[in-house]
Design brief:
The structure holds two protein chains of two kinds.
Chain A (H helix, E strand, L loop, with lengths): L1 H11 L7 H11 L11 H14 L13 H12 L2 H22 L8 H14 L6 E2 L2 E2 L7 H15 L2 H7 L10 E5 L10
Antiparallel strand pairs in A: 1-2
Chain B lengths: L12 E7 L3 H12 L4 E4 L29 H4 L27 E3 L27 H4 L1 H5 L9 H15 L1 E2 L13 E2 L6 H13 L6 E2 L33 H11 L3 E4 L2 E9 L4 E9 L5 E11 L3 H9 L28 E7 L5 E4 L6 E3 L18 E9 L13 H6 L6 E9 L8 E9 L5 E6 L4 H20 L3 E7 L30 E2 L2 E6 L14 H20 L4
Parallel strand pairs in B: 1-2, 1-10, 2-7, 3-17, 4-5, 10-20
Antiparallel strand pairs in B: 6-13, 8-9, 9-10, 11-15, 11-18, 13-14, 14-15, 16-17, 19-20
The chains are: A mainly alpha, B alpha/beta.
Chain lengths: 194, 568
């Protein structure tokens, strides 16, 4: 069932053509991931996994992959994005990989950590930024931030709103009681998770 | 709490009918029921019982597949309201579906609706400020619109009346332009807000920065619990800590035994009896079965929200009122107002790195109006004025998106709170313009066969001039308060984003130029009362809901006294 689903998805996103050798190729690609994308193509899922792992690697605290950030981004892609948003993200991912190939001859997922880092530094320097926001809405006219910063923002959301981080790493307090406006940060520790 | 009596069928005749169960309808129901009137509340949507019907109130982000965001497919139902940025998976069941309730925007107008028991009282911002004579005399003073038929002293005791029961927290500071309420203890400012307050008040004599005055309990009241700073209000509060019809007024009305509430009851039109020269009841469409029925009463209170009530009155035609009930003046549907929104400034605060706060305070700061309040503060750039809401807080991991960094250290640094940030955003008074209007679209009917609405309204020169000043002043205040990286902004929203629609059936002294009299009665049909935002003669720059509550309680008590005298 999973395999059939995988084939359907890869076909849907045009990664594989209908001929048999290409399907084999896509199966080989599937084996690179330890999860099955529901919406992203395998090639794009690999990029997302590699990107979030580079952005938020495991340290003393869990990394993005442990928190299934890539799997959540697959959901965001499939369910939160409309058709237009998916198309835009597809193009963003293809362009991103094209840049990697141009610079270093391989797709992002296949690069060494050193080259991954070089690519992200370039992206950081060149990507537009988000405007500030008031009550959850951007102020002023928000220019498009492009694929990289948009994905970074989604990865942060996915990571920091995950259950393990929210309950066990950040400071969790679902019922704080009366507001205390001025206390010592050291009495709290990490940022409130909610 | 006793179950609500929803069996309206066995009795088609009541003393009073209240159309709508939001902030003003809930108050009408409470006051009328407590005065002994058998009252039928017509609610176009479903029942929402306090706590029982708050299914999402305890959700954490990870409890939902999309962590609180709404899937694109589901968001299609809310395409107009989605512009607000307010709609999430945890609250969208309290927002009306736009696809089922179409309206036409001649110019951009975001009409947010809450079509269920409690209406938008479940969703409101809860900021509560008394209006002053600066507001009630504004039209008379500068000649825009018509004069209010009341002054502050007439409504002041009713403010006190509703505040004591609703529970308003805040600090009394004795400003003439923003009279103090009957307050519960104020919420606390955080460390940065305390600093910014000091600096602004020192640098700008005559300006004040205060904690927001809000309908949140800061101590228990009438069996309701105090605010626990969860800031999940728009899902329904398990403690009943904020004011909503569901938690406060409707249970009180229900306790009297005089309340019947009929859900799924779309008020189609008010039935006018030509011989009696008054309204005798309301024609209702069952919004589920489309069955049409009539309910009768001695008095009718219209509390269907500003635009909803206007739609109902425009649709209530008869030989006597060809253009809508009580529309002798031709002003019904006109003078639609709102407040401007998201114009201001934000910046970063250096210092207080070692301090933080506990709780997600559902409130912020308020800077009361300081322009055009006396001779000294008068400007020739615009009439009327503005106030600011805002607040300070520490950035969280979200700030990481803009940081030119990534990797393990970056990730771990985001576990700690980031910079302190402070913002203020202004709310400008909007003048009543005859041409800003709501009208019926008889060509396009909704699924119940009622004419839909066309909204044709925009902010004009005066509001835009105020917005300009809002941004200039905001940047200046933040600069003088020592903030860094200051960004001024103006999102240039059309109307509706303030969600303070007002004015389409205004009160006035003269039946030739207004729809309602000084006690919210339709001039020509005295047993019909309008006490939601439609009744407002001007818009002030402060939030209007507390004034709807006070006007409603005042009108309901007037109605009861007139009934006793057989005047209605």
């Amino acid at each position: 069932m999973e395999r059939r689903e995988a084939l359907k998805q890869t076909a849907l996103f045009g990664v594989a053509t209908a001929i048999f050798p290409s399907l084999l190729q896509s199966c080989k690609e599937v084996s690179r991931l330890n999860w099955q994308p529901k919406f992203l193509s395998v090639k794009h899922a690999e990029l997302v996994s590699a990107l979030v792992d580079t952005l938020l690697p495991k340290t003393e605290t869990p990394g993005a992959l442990e928190m299934k950030v890539d799997i959540f981004i697959d959901l965001v892609y499939g369910k939160l994005n409309g058709k237009a948003g998916q198309k835009e993200m597809d193009k963003g991912m293809d362009d991103f990989n094209a840049t990697c190939k141009e610079k270093f001859g391989e797709a992002f997922a296949d690069l060494s950590l050193e080259n991954k880092t070089k690519i992200l530094k370039m992206e950081e320097a060149s990507s537009p930024k988000f405007n500030g926001s008031v009550w959850g809405t951007a102020v002023g006219k928000q220019e498009p931030v492009g694929f990289y910063r948009s994905l970074k923002s989604t990865a942060l959301w996915a990571y920091f709103s995950s259950e393990d981080i929210g309950l066990n790493v950040l400071s969790y307090d679902p019922v704080p009681g009366p507001y205390q406006g001025c206390i010592l940060l050291s009495d709290v520790g990490n940022t409130w998770s909610l | 709490m006793a179950n609500f009596n929803i069996d309206a069928k066995k009795d088609m005749t009541y003393d009073a009918i209240v159309i709508g169960s939001g902030i003003s309808g809930g108050w009408a129901a409470k006051e009328l029921c407590e005065s002994g009137l058998k009252t039928l509340v017509l609610e176009r949507g479903r029942l929402v019982e306090h706590v029982i019907d708050y299914p999402t109130m305890n959700n954490d982000p990870w409890d939902l597949e999309l962590r609180g965001a709404v899937a694109a497919e589901e968001m299609k139902e809310h395409q107009k309201a989605a512009r607000s940025g307010f709609i999430g998976e945890n609250n969208r069941h309290f927002y009306a579906k736009d696809d089922e309730n179409p309206y036409k925007e001649e110019k951009p107008f975001m009409w947010l609706r809450g079509n269920q028991m409690g209406g938008r009282s479940l969703l409101w911002g809860k900021q509560c400020y008394r209006w002053s004579d600066l507001d009630f005399m504004a039209n008379a003073k500068d000649g825009h619109g018509v004069d209010w038929p009341i002054r502050y002293k007439e409504i002041a005791p009713w403010y006190t009346h509703v505040e004591k029961f609703a529970g308003i927290s805040g600090e009394a500071i004795g400003l003439p332009q923003l009279p103090d309420s009957h307050f519960l203890p104020p919420m606390e400012l955080n460390c940065v807000e305390k600093d910014v307050k000091k600096r602004i008040e020192k640098e700008f004599p005559g300006r004040n920065m205060i904690i927001g005055r809000v309908a949140h309990l800061t101590e228990p009241l009438n069996g309701r619990g105090q605010c626990q700073s969860r800031n999940r209000c728009d899902r329904g509060c398990p403690y009943g800590a904020y004011f909503s019809s569901n938690a406060v007024t409707l249970p009180a009305a229900n306790l009297t035994g005089n309340l019947t509430i009929r859900p799924f009851s779309l008020a189609d039109s008010i039935i006018y009896d030509e011989e009696k020269g008054k309204a005798v009841g309301v024609r209702v469409i069952d919004s589920e079965t489309k069955e049409v029925m009539e309910y009768y009463a001695k008095i009718v209170f219209c509390n269907a929200s500003t635009i909803g009530t206007t739609q109902l009155l425009l649709n209530s035609t008869s030989n006597r009122f060809e253009n809508g009930l009580g529309n002798d003046s031709g002003e019904l549907g006109h003078n639609l107002m709102d407040h401007t929104y998201r114009v201001g400034a934000m910046g970063k605060f250096d210092g207080h790195e070692d301090t933080y706060y506990k709780g997600r305070r559902p409130n912020g700061i308020y800077i009361p109006r300081y322009r055009n309040i006396d001779e000294k503060s008068t400007t020739d750039k615009f009439v009327r004025g503005f106030g600011y809401q805002g607040g300070a807080g520490r950035a969280n991991w979200g700030a990481g998106a803009n940081q030119e960094a990534f990797g393990g250290e970056f990730k771990d640094a985001l576990m700690k709170p980031g910079d302190w940030e402070f913002f203020i955003t202004g709310f400008a008074e909007c003048l009543p313009y005859h041409e800003n209007q709501v009208s019926l679209d008889r060509e396009n009917l909704d699924k119940w066969g009622r004419p839909t609405l066309v909204i044709d309204a925009e902010f004009k020169e005066n509001e835009l001039a105020i917005n300009k000043q809002i941004q200039i002043d905001a940047v200046e205040m933040l600069e003088k308060a020592g903030l860094k990286d200051i960004v001024g902004f103006d999102n240039e929203h059309g109307m509706g984003y303030g969600v303070h629609e007002m004015g389409t059936a205004r009160m006035g002294r003269d039946p030739k130029t207004s729809v309602l009299n000084a006690t919210n009665q339709v001039h020509a049909v005295k047993n019909v009362f309008v006490t939601d935002g439609a009744c407002m003669t001007s818009s002030s720059c402060v939030n209007p809901s507390l004034t709807y509550m006070a006007l409603t309680a005042r009108a309901a008590n007037h109605a009861v006294s007139e009934l006793k005298k057989n005047n209605l």
